[in-house]
Amino acid sequence: MLHVSEYHRESDTMFDFQCPGKPTPPGCPEVVSVTHNSATLSWSPPRNDGGSPITGYIVESKSTSSFTWTVCNIGVKVLEPHFTVRDLVEGMTYEFRVIAENKAGRSEESPVSKPVVVRETAGTCHVTVEPVLKDLPIPPPQLATKIKMWSVKTGGVW
What we know:
This protein is mainly beta. It folds into two domains: 88 residues, Immunoglobulins (Immunoglobulin-like), CATH 2.60.40.10; 32 residues, no CATH class. Helices cover 0% and strands 45% of the residues. The chain is built from no helices and twelve strands. The strands form four sheets. Strands 5, 6, 8, 9 and 10 form a five-stranded antiparallel sheet that branches. A three-stranded antiparallel sheet has the order 3-4-7, with no helix packed on it. A two-stranded antiparallel ribbon has the order 1-2. Strand 3 and strand 4 form a beta hairpin. It is elongated and about 80 Å long.
């Protein structure tokens, strides 16, 4: 209740207003796919947005051999509860966490993901196709032409 006094007139006025609060933490991020240098994460939005819509997420990572968390989406606005973290080091083990934001501020950090080793998953491989020119004699001689042959280099885990 607000009591207002103006030039000997008094009035009691009721105002109903709410100040938005910070959101609760998002759900624990889950690693849904991994490559030799990236990990795609998915998480559930906060159970409570604090009375103000979620305006974005901050995604953090750290190697399990480190104590320092690094922001993964600097300069990238993450508006949906999923994100692909790039430029990870192959063979390293990483953990991830997420922070939600609204106009009142930032949530606490989500629970930390299960550790994941960054590497190509079994059954996938990289194939690089490079053109190679070869002179192949084809009888009769008037049909001899340069034929494009292809060499294939493979890598990754089969």
